[in-house]
Amino acid sequence: MNKSFDSLEIYSVDLASRSLGLMIFEITSFAVLQFMTITGNALTMYIIWKAPKLRSTSNYFIACLAISDLGMGILSEHLLLATLIVSRWPFNEAVCQYQGIVAITMAAASTQTLAWTALNRYFKIVKTKYYTKVFTKWKLIAILSFTWISSILANCPYLLAGYKFVFHPGKFFCYLTLDVTWFTAFLVSIYVGIPSAVIVFCYFKVFQTVRRHNSNISKTRATGVLSVEELKVTRTLFLIVVVFMGCWTPILIMDLIDTVRGRWSLSRSAYAAYTFLGTMSSAVNPLIYAFGNHAFKEEYRKVLNFSWGSVRKMFCWVRNGAHVGSVRSLAIEQPRHVDVNKNISIKVQKVNDIKEVCHGQQEKLSVELNL
């Protein structure tokens, strides 16, 4: 136990002695990932709520995954960013316990949601005739409720046993102590092992069915039972799983190495990559939806086009107002012997030019001059 804390002190020194270039790189990169996590997942939840055509069962699981990712971004990641900025944990122990609980809760919710999503695809593609019986409205509510309740309870064995989360300077967040191998085994088995086994089994069966389906179509030249849209949805969800596993497998391996060795044995850069990988898994999912699913892409485009159009309209309005004000001030302040009409005509011409740039979005501009 003492050796563990001694090694953490070494990582504290490494965190505080980073070069200026490394500090700027880590702070900027993490801030960008946090911004992507919050805006992307908030936008995903908004368009699922806003667009009726996106309110399908599979998309409710996407919304659940977006909630866990958004929760990580809003409730936890700002604490990590502050730590990177000041090169130490600037908060008290209570905040450390809070941050550790949030991290495990959201991670557990993500793995379970991906497992339920895989089961959803399994019944939709492989066991089609049972799909409407298994994924009813009330069963879906029960599944999502179970996911979040079990994720919140994931911390209970650790906390009830009297253990506390400790700040890890290498990972720059609060995490488990090393002398709780039983709890690590519990987390890995229940919240990683079982969901991973379900995901592998379900998508293996799905790909077998899809391959058989495509083979039958090529031989008979007949129309397939599986819709093209469902196959695209399945492909997008599988890509999410691949990215998630790609980010979290190195994290799991590093945790297992330290648990077996009984000490924090890796470099500070390895632990920093640990945290960045976990953050990246929450940030990239909206990009997968946008580029892998046509329906999501269209809804993203509608929202972003509306937002950009509003900003552009406001910009044009401000520019027009600024030029009108300058014309009026010119009319008031110019001496009588100066050719005021010439200067005013130039200003009015600029206003008209801006009106043309705004493509008719502004109301007709009238300038009244009292000389």
TrEMBL record:
Residues passing through the membrane, by range: 20-48, 60-86, 98-119, 140-160, 180-204, 237-257, 269-292
Topological type in the membrane: Multi-pass membrane protein
Alphabetized PANTHER family for the sequence: OPSIN
Molecular functions (GO terms): G protein-coupled receptor activity
Record's protein name: Melatonin receptor type 1B-like
Keyword annotations from UniProtKB, A to Z: G-protein coupled receptor, Membrane, Receptor, Transducer, Transmembrane, Transmembrane helix
Keyword Transmembrane helix: yes
Gene3D superfamilies with a match to the protein in the record: Rhodopsin 7-helix transmembrane proteins
Coiled coil: none
Primary location recorded for the protein, binned into one broad class: membrane
GO CC annotation: membrane
Family statement drawn from the similarity comment of this UniProt entry: Belongs to the G-protein coupled receptor 1 family.
